[in-house]
Write a structure and sequence with these properties.
- Keywords: ATP-binding, Cell membrane, Membrane, Nucleotide-binding, Translocase, Transport.
- One of its GO terms (molecular function) is ATP binding.
- This is ABC transporter ATP-binding protein.
- It comes from Nocardioides zeae.
- It is built from nine helices and 20 strands.
- The protein has two domains: about 230 residues, P-loop containing nucleotide triphosphate hydrolases (Rossmann fold, 3-Layer(aba) Sandwich), CATH 3.40.50.300; about 120 residues, OB fold (Dihydrolipoamide Acetyltransferase, E2P) (Beta Barrel), CATH 2.40.50.140.
- The chain starts with a strand and ends in an 18-residue tail after the last strand.
- By secondary structure, the protein is of the alpha+beta class.
- Helix 2 packs parallel to helix 5 and helix 4 crosses helix 5.
- A hairpin with a 7-residue loop joins strand 1 and strand 2.
- It is globular.
- The strands form four sheets. It has a six-stranded mixed beta sheet, with helices on both faces.
- Bound molecules: adenosine-5'-diphosphate and magnesium ion.
- The site of magnesium ion has 2 residues, from helix 1.
Length: about 375
């Protein structure tokens, strides 16, 4: 196990004027941490992993593993992949079909000539760890998808690498199995604490697994923090959207306070020297009131455009002043009986909303206790 330090890492696939797929990336990962790299498709997650593994040659920057440079653009250091102590687990299990489970798991030990591991039963040990000890003599085609991915997991950690890289390893599994293998992986990490970078585009997976989440956007890290921090206090408008604060409203400052168009002014728990604010709110933090009278500043008039029944909740689509809003209300509450075409009032939970400066897209400090004034 080792720490990872990435400094000013840049990768361009074309010439010096082409767009940087990884753009001056900085990241410090302490030993034993499971860091989740979370971002939309195409933001550079796989390329980052490939640079760490030595499968891709970065354009510039520095990567250290356990304090030793494995890549340094200036000093022209570039350790080949097989000399880096790194395990990898991919989306496709990529097991060798003609090899037994035992041989598949042992493969990294063979390639890296780790004789101790072959002699001292590391394969059996790690197979037991992922509940595959009884499958060692089978071939991959004789295993279920979940078992295959567990074997791939065992192969990734068998050589006791300094770092384990995961590239969306659960995305080929069906929903139930994904949850199960995710829980197993979480437990395994708690138990043996390997340093790892886990790539996903799935917010729930990131929250469930990560010690810290790094949100990546266009080759840069937008925010890197503990899961609850990223969820509760997104640093930017982009992170807020990515973490489920899907409703976005614009407010302007007037003499009586902040207001959305059509809404009454409201005093908000923010102290910012700006004249406009972007408000981000989760669907579950919007309430629906009957009638059309806007009496409080944290209310805006809206029209219901559709509803989707979800069992314990109802998702209500709304339109307010040309903007689409999404509310999630508990089944049985008055708001859950809203129907398409209804004119209603949407109430924003201003204490749980988050506020951003539209010019910089960065979060604006908010006070813990809001003061809502009619
Ligand atoms: N070998 C390559 N040559 C050219 N462009 C590439 C290559 N690999 C990846 N890219 C581009 O780099 C960007 C990031 O890709 P990738 O790292 O695979 O993203 P992610 O894993 O986040 O979906 C994409 O725009 C992709 O098209
Ligand atoms: Mg990818």
């Amino acid at each position: 196990m080792a720490s990872v330090s990435i400094t000013s890492l840049t990768k361009r696939f074309g010439g010096p004027r082409s767009d940087a797929v990884i753009d001056d990336l900085q990241l410090e990962i302490p030993q034993g941490e499971l860091l989740v790299l979370l971002g939309a498709s195409g933001c550079g997650k796989t390329t980052t992993l490939r640079c760490l593994a030595g499968l891709e040659s970065p354009t510039s920057g520095r990567i250290e593993l356990g304090g030793n440079a494995v890549f340094d653009g200036e000093r022209r250091i570039e350790l080949p992949a097989e000399k880096r102590s790194i395990g990898m687990v991919f989306q496709s299990y990529a097991l060798w079909p003609h090899m037994t489970v035992r041989k598949n798991i042992a493969y990294p030990l063979k390639v890296r000539k780790i004789k101790d591991g072959l002699r001292d039963g590391w394969v059996e040990e790690v197979a037991d760890l992922v509940d595959c000890g009884h499958l060692l003599d089978r071939y991959p085609s004789q295993l279920s998808g979940g078992q295959q991915q567990r074997v791939a997991l065992a192969r990734g950690i068998v050589a006791r690498p300094d770092l384990v890289l995961f590239d969306e390893p659960l995305s080929n599994l069906d929903a139930k199995l994904r949850m199960q293998v995710r829980a197993d992986l979480h437990e395994l990490h708690e138990r043996i604490g390997f340093t790892s970078v886990f790539v996903t585009h799935d917010q729930d997976e990131a929250l469930a697994l990560a010690d810290r989440i790094a949100i990546m956007r266009s080759g840069r890290i937008e925010q890197c923090a503990a899961p609850d921090t990223v969820f509760e206090e997104p640093a930017t408008d982009y992170v807020a959207e990515f973490m489920g604060m899907s409703n976005r409203l614009s407010l302007t400052r007037g003499v009586d306070g902040w207001s959305a168009s059509g809404g009454a002014p409201v005093r908000l728990p923010v102290a910012a020297d700006v004249d406009e604010l972007t408000v981000r709110v989760r669907p579950e933090h919007l309430a629906i009131r009957g009638g059309q009278d806007v009496v409080h500043g944290h209310q805006v008039p809206a029209r219901v455009t559709g509803t989707v029944y979800g069992g314990s909740h109802v998702d209500v689509s709304l339109e307010a002043d040309g903007r689409r809003l999404q509310a999630r209300v508990e089944t049985g509450t008055p708001g859950s009986r809203a129907a398409a075409g209804d004119r209603v009032v949407v109430e924003i939970d201003v204490a749980r909303a988050r506020y951003f400066d539209p010019a910089t897209e960065r979060a604006v400090a908010h006070a813990p206790v809001p003061e809502v004034v009619a």
